[in-house]
Write a structure and sequence with these properties.
Length: 370
């Protein structure tokens, strides 16, 4: 280990919004790992040319930071939304101009398709209430087209402007993270312009330009891959040098519910199915970590490290120390041992929903092979 976690913590203090790659900002993701933490850990525990495994990739923070630092990347997540975001960051178009050209072509295709159907689509009432009918039809046609052609970057950009109260987004006034309408704050009679048709083209092009504003070039010779499966089924057929991930906090976030509108445009009719996968008890969480331990034992190099960012879980005024569960599970097999740990308080802006009471601190744990 080249540096202690206590020293590294100085590198990720403060906000990274104004300094991180703008590819990190393609679309919001509740509970995502802070990019400066991901970047510092990649730098400290791997070297250029190493292979980094991220089995719970979420927003793709680790994947993009590793790629930017010339590490080979293997990423995985079972969520369709996480899959789109991470693929978008791993395989972006080579330039802003190339992305804009593609977007204009696909927008023309989508608008023709929506018009041919007279802007009629099958959508549940809760989805329809967010959009002008024409905007909804064109956006749905575009996301279907982009999905068929596996244009993950453009699809992520569409999801990033799907809902917000600002005019530059596609929905009626609503929240940016968890989708709900803000009709009381912006009544239709007082803000009629916010309820008119919203054209995809200028909004998506502006989003693409923002994405490339501070995007570091990615070397073509760096290997990258993405899997979309449960951790229990994930197979890695090469040696990895660093397993760096943040396992889903134990029932602290509802990944399906919080992203339900974006998931619907990705073809997920029942978002609750994703939330049923969440670990709801300490026993289920321990079993998830056992699957992670077995994966690491199969593919981690002799000198490799496991680095985990673990969130505290608070329920009914009680705190569940998930770091203790992780440490017990990873060391009980005698194949790994804990070499470093640091505890961080989570600022209000980074805490998950539910009145900011669920996750107030997190631990970063480093393990080596015995």
């Amino acid at each position: 280990m080249r540096q202690s976690l206590r020293f590294l913590r100085r590198q990720w203090s403060g906000s990274s919004i104004g300094t991180e790659s703008t590819l990190h900002q393609l679309a919001p993701y509740i509970g995502k790992l802070k990019t400066s933490i991901a970047g510092a850990l990649v730098s400290a525990y791997s070297r250029p040319g190493d292979t980094v495994l991220e089995p719970f990739t979420g927003s793709g923070a680790v994947a993009l930071e590793a790629l930017s630092q010339r590490r080979n990347v293997i990423a995985n997540d079972v969520s369709p939304y996480a899959a789109v975001l991470t693929r978008a960051k791993l395989f972006p178009p080579p330039s802003e101009a190339d992305a804009v050209r593609k977007a204009l072509r696909y927008i023309r295709i989508a608008k023709r398709a929506a018009k041919a159907r007279q802007y009629r689509i099958r959508a549940p009432k809760w989805v329809r209430q967010f959009f002008h009918p024409k905007t909804l039809a064109e956006t749905h046609a575009l996301t279907q087209t982009l999905s068929r052609h596996e244009e993950w970057f453009l699809l992520a950009c569409v999801l990033g402007i799907l809902h917000h109260q600002r005019p530059g987004f596609l929905s009626y006034p609503s929240s940016h993270l968890v989708p709900y309408l803000r009709l009381r704050k912006f009544p239709r009679v007082r803000f009629p312009s916010l309820y008119k048709y919203r054209d995809l083209e200028p909004r998506l092009i502006a989003k693409i330009r923002r994405a490339y504003r501070r995007a570091a070039p990615i070397r073509a010779d760096v290997r990258r891959s993405f899997a979309a499966c449960d951790i229990r089924e994930l197979k890695v057929h090469e040696r990895i040098d660093l397993l760096l991930t943040s396992p889903p906090y134990m029932n602290a976030l509802d990944y399906g519910r919080d992203n339900r509108l974006r998931l619907w445009f990705l073809g997920v009719e029942n978002y609750r199915e994703l939330d049923r996968r969440n670990c709801r008890t300490p026993e289920e969480f321990a079993e998830l970590i056992r699957s992670l331990e077995r994966l690491a034992n199969d593919c981690l190099s002799p000198s490799g490290k496991i680095v985990l960012v673990i969130g505290e879980v608070r329920r009914k005024r009680q705190s569940i120390n998930t770091a203790e569960i992780v440490t017990r599970v990873l060391t009980e097999s005698k194949r790994f041992h804990l070499v470093d740990v640091v505890e961080d308080l989570v600022p209000d802006l980074r805490r998950c929903r539910r009145n900011y009471c669920t996750t107030k601190r997190e631990w970063i744990l480093v393990f080596s092979r015995n």
